[in-house]
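B., you asked whether I could sanity-check this one before it goes into the benchmark set. Here's the sequence:
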Amino acid sequence: MLKNQSFVAIVAGALGVAICATAAAQTGGDAALVKTWKQAGAAKVAIASTPPYAFVSPSGEPQGYLIEVSQEVLKGLGVPKLTAVVTTWDAMIPGLQARQYDFLPGGMNITAARCQVVAFTVPVTAQQDALYVKPGNPKKLTGYASAAKNADARVAVLAGSSQEAYATKQNVPAGQLMRVPDIQSGIAAVTGGRADAFIVGQFSVAEPEKKGVERVVDLTSPAVGIALAFRKEDAATRDAFDVQINGLKANGTMKKLYVDKYGFNNWDLLARTNKATDIVPDCK
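And here's what the prediction gave me:
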C-alpha cells in the first residue's frame, strides 16, 4: 500500500510540475521580456512596409495580418498593445540586436542564415515565391531559373531579403538584380519599365491586378515560412509566443485571419507547418 501511495504521490507531483510549467509558458511567467512589456504597457516592434503583412495606416496605426497575429498573442500574454517603427529589411536584424525594438513581426522568412542570429517562432504563413510582371508577362518568365537564363531580364528584389539571397544562389547574375527598399518600390520598378519582374512571396502583393501587375508563382521554389523573430537571448519569450500561436491555430482564430480576412488560400499547408524546423531543419 505504501508503495502504491508513494507512486501516486510521485505521479501527482510530476503532473503538478507539468501543469505549472505549462501555465508559466502560457503566461510568459519565466520570460523577463514579457514582464517588461506588462510594466510598460506595450511591446515595441519594427516593420517594413509590406502589406498585407505589416504596414502603417495613414493615421499612424500598425496594421496587417502579422500585426493582428502579434496583437492576439500579446493579448493572450496579458500585454495590452504594441507600438511599431518602420525600417528597411536590411536594418531589421541589426536594430533588433541593438535593442532598438523587442521583436520583428514584419514578414521575415525563416532562413538558415537568419536562424543563426535570431530565434524564430513557429511559422505564421507558408508560401512559395512569385514573380510580379507586367500583364501578359512579356519576357515569359516563370521563376528564378528562367530569369537566370535570360540575360535581358531585370529582376527587382527587396534589399536584404531571402529572395535576394536565393536569386544569387540560383545564378541570377548580380548585374540583373535591382535592390529596392520596399514592396511598393518593387511594383513601381516593374510598372515603370525599370524591371521585368519583382520577386517576393506569393501573398506579399494583395490584388496585384489593381496595381498593374500579374502574379506568376515559381512552382519550383522551395516552400518558405514567415515567423516572428526574437533575439536569441529572448528564447523564453519566443517559447511563450509559440504556445499562444499554436493555441490560435487550434481555436480557429488564426484561420479566420489567414483565410477569411486576408484571403490566403493555402491553410492546409500552414496547418501542417508547426515549427521552424519544418522550414529549416536545423533552425533553433
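One thing to flag: The longest helix spans residues 2-27. Otherwise nothing jumped out at me.
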